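thought: fold this chain, then report.
action: predict
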Amino acid sequence: MKIDTKDEIVLAVLKKMDQRSIIGQEKYGATMMQEIEGQEKDLNRFLIDVQEELMDALLYIEAAKRCLSDEIEQAMINRNNIIGQNGNDGLHYDEDHALDQVMNNMVSDITIKDIDVIVEEVNNPSDPVETLVDATEEYKQTLK
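observation:
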């Protein structure tokens, strides 16, 4: 297969996918196609794998959200320390501070809403495809 793109991001993702495939083949002793052809996995098993991966993704999202919150908090502390070291009272920073507050609230609100919706959909799926579509629509609504 010839790859024509010059996009470095796409090429990096393709390289990672290739590396993950090699790791999976070594771990499980077969390619995904071999699992299908050998009837080792059916559609249901692949959907269960997707569901498990999405649940793992939720954990990564929550961990990343906490890291982001910690980083924002540390940046605000560092900023306030610099303002204090310069003998400023910070009053001329009110506009920037308001933006910081909006950004903090936006990150917290969006991720909490998104995670709640996704967790509910993953824990109680009726149709995996419908579940993903519904979760995507819910996510879009929270962004409006």
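thought: worth noting. The mean pLDDT is 77.
final: tokens above.
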